[in-house]
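Please go through this chain and its backbone structure tokens and walk me through the local backbone shapes. Keep your notes short.
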Amino acid sequence: MFALYAPPSLMSSLLHRSCAISSSTQSFVHTLNLTKHFFSHSCRSLLCTVAVMNGSNSTAGDSTSEHVFGNWYTVPELRLRDHRFAVPMDYSLDLHSSPKISVFAREVVAVGKEEKTLPYLLYLQGGPGFECPRPTESSGWIHKACEEFRRGTGLSTPLTVSSMSQFKSADEIADYLKHFRADNIVNDAEFIRARLVPDAGPWTVLGQSYGGFCAVTYLSFAPQGLKQVLLTGGIPPIGDGCTADSVYRACFEQIIHQNDKYYKRYPQDIKLVQELVSYLADKEGGGVMLPSGGILTPRGLQTLGLSGLGSGSGFERLHYMFERIWDPTLVPGAPKKINYNFLSSFEKWLGFDTNPLYAIMHESIYCQGAPSRWSANRIMAECESKFDAIKAAREGHPVLFTGEMIFPWMFDEIHALKQFKDAAHKLAEKKDWPRLYDVKVLNSNKVPVAAAVYYEDMYVNFKVAMETASQIGGIRLWITNEFMHSGLRDGGSQVLDHLLGMLNGKKPLF
């Protein structure tokens, strides 16, 4: 493993280096996991965790129009408390006239530190569209965070297939979902910070993956609310228009590299996947029915790379899944059939039945004043021959899996997404997305920022991340090939420890 520490003065030269670098980050403080709910029971998910400390004006059991919280309760080595905030749905309207949304947050602190005055942390979860993990014990980076801070996580529930069925049209869904990007996440965070932090002081933000994108939006439009920022695998492209095209062009190279690494580790899977692709292609309709009512096709099978190729233990999970593709032959002459467990595992792996927001909103996170127009689908056409699963299987080449990409055909083949097809198309063609970043403000940034940049990150391309980092004043980088995109989760306390050390003087600048 090669590691490089990058002060701002070395940023330009780093952009031209081809060496691996190591990164780490983590969070501290009482945090709250935010889930938004319309009072009419529709829901909006913030996918972030907000730090909460003692010192707010509210008290347990005290009920106001803006903030209600309950009593402390316990999981092993942690104390937890639940909060709910009433925040505006649409910040472009007067705060009193906008519809209100309820934000749920879970406060977490080490046992015995409930009454101590500790710093605040805002934890921004990856996604978009996936909830924070529920805390069950003090371990990993959460344990490290709770040594010094109050941290929160827990009940961030994304928009669901059933809750969005309350809308009567695709226009209503698209109009609702346009409020679910980084700009409103920052607005919500600022709303809560002003009501929680004593004297409305600044707090620290930890942004993982898409949460890092949100943190850079925070640096752009509300730096006065930030004490310091920690980024883990989450430095976004910040150009005008829609940057998704450049992102996917850069990412395909890394996706092919990850495929190569996977098949070198599990060469026996080459023939297994080829056989499965050929079986699916030869079926009437080009695939087999899934338990939910969708269809598994060769191109659908390739989407297993989204989770399998880019995170710690992903290779192993993918390989073990392929160990049980076929039903055993119990009766001589019985036709070959895919195992139900495999089909069920495939659907659970994707998670679109429980987290449809990821598929519907994914490309919009790259849009500023321009539509995405199904960017991944268009860019993949430029290298389509490399990802033609049926051709690869028939010619004896390894079948390549795809990465963090959403394609329009998914809304035909994945049962949970079918009802959102028209809304997804409307969002893909939407042109008037508001700005997410201010490059001039980022250039003159004065907030201390430390970032873990993963050299072999399949989701947030290294080159793209470095281009943006060169535009953020004062940022310090820890670039590494020791971790993949899931380093915050996989590295225990190491990532958080290292990034905090970079900002508190424990790690030398040079």
Residues 244-265 form the longest helix (22 residues). The chain has two domains: 5-238+436-504, 242-429.
